[in-house]
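Aim 2 progress update. The chain analyzed this quarter is reproduced below.
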Amino acid sequence: MESQFAGLYATAETIEVAVRPTKEMWKTDFADESIAATAKKLKGMQPRLVVMEAAGAFELPVAGVFAIYGLPFAIVNPRNVRDFARAVGRVSRFDYTQADLLAHFGELVDLQPRPLAEELIEKLKYLRTRRENVVEMLLLERSYLATAPQSLRNDIQRHINFLEQGITTLNQEFNRTVRSSAVWR
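Predicted structure tokens:
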């Protein structure tokens, strides 16, 4: 079986994936369920490497989930990708998608995945599980708010605000954990 390379490009709204040499492509929204579904789908494909660009903050939660799923991935410098695009004559956005360019980069450049240490993966698993639990609490509180007596609404709203801040803090810690790991260097 020929080695497959996947390129993944994440923005605030979408996750775009391209696989080489099969040319399979898909796009999904940037949400927890979509990140997990993308990880599961790629895990089933058993790519040699998933290449992501260190373009901002959106690749961090994806990389963390990929580490939890045991997917081999590399986060690459955007400048290297731009230089590669010029070198292979793929400068026009009409010739390719960003995910396809990243997959092509992974296919031709000898990148090595940088697996996270087991203790970091365990921390990421804990943070993700904790976040899922807080999200469940938040959804429950929001449903109570809709039907609560007026006398309780302020208390429920304060708890909703607290839970939302907790989710933000957990997201930041998850991203910080990935950024401080060897995959980012």
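The radius of gyration is 19 Å. The first helix runs from residue 32 to 45. These observations will guide the mutagenesis experiments scheduled for the next reporting period.
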